[in-house]
Specification:
Keywords: ATP-binding, Nucleotide-binding. By secondary structure, this protein is α/β, with parallel strands linked by helices. The chain contains nine helices and twelve strands. It has a single domain, classed as Rossmann fold, CATH 3.40.50. The strands form three sheets. A six-stranded mixed beta sheet has the order 6-7-8-3-9-10, sandwiched between helices. It has a four-stranded antiparallel beta sheet with strand order 2-1-4-5, covered by helices on one side. The radius of gyration is 18 Å and the shape is globular. Bound molecules: adenosine-5'-triphosphate. The site of adenosine-5'-triphosphate has 12 residues, from β2 and α1.
Amino acid sequence: MKAGMQHQTSFGTLAGARLSYTVSGARLVKGIDCVIEPGVPTALLGPNGAGKSTLLHLLAGVLHPSTGSVQLDGEDLSSLPSRTRAQRVALVEQTVNSGQPLMAFDVVLLGRTPFQGLFASASADDFSIASAALETVGMGAFAGRLYETLSGGEQQRIQLARALAQQPRVLLLDEPTNHLDVGAQLGTMRLLRSLGSDGFTVVAALHDLNLAAEFCDHAILLDDGAVVAAGPTEEVLVPATIRKVFGIDAAVLENPLSGRPLIVFR
Ligand SMILES: Nc1ncnc2c1ncn2[C@@H]1O[C@H](COP(=O)(O)OP(=O)(O)OP(=O)(O)O)[C@@H](O)[C@H]1O
């Protein structure tokens, strides 16, 4: 970890209480209780349409719950000014268009916006924090490239760097590995795990159960907008639950390289 990436406090417990979200008469999230602790990398799992993205947006304060609340260290997220919230919580979305022709470095620098005055430009500190974030995700060589010209996987890593430049207590990621090759997937998951070890609160929506089993200590499994199981990943990802939620036969072995659970499917 680069020095610029260290966060400043050990706070960061994020809790959703009786969270529900209804839009156009559809109840997408149905009374979810969840707690995400700093230092415990957490996977948000579930089939397509289970409500993972919606829950992440609620936990980030981007969406407002229809009922229930999200608390960060006991403070209601909705009571925080949006600038304060952005200094504490960063969301990495699945795909993000910059909307204008920005260099990759400038996209990362956007992560510093919550720390800048209304008409102030980026400080030397902002530049060095953005540079460190870019290096942390292994994208230093791409600083001067037009963001729109980057591949999906490269853009995904730039978005992760932007979130790191925010120096948040809480990092929420929506399928952070879906565009990445296998080496880059493992690199990103190792980085998230090391951020967790450094005391960040990290929660990632993932489709790959084996990435969750390998790198996440805690898992929250959703189906149809509700929590089916939550707890230590190896207790959540058991064959009976996988069968019930995903409708497939699975067995859990031991990964001979890491000793972590390895899920095989038929
Ligand atoms: N504005 C909306 N109106 C009605 N339904 C919606 C709306 N937005 C999302 N949904 C539905 O809510 C459900 C949950 O969506 P969400 O994106 O949270 O699921 P997800 O678990 O992240 O799915 P995926 O794994 O496919 O990304 C889906 O069935 C989706 O079609």
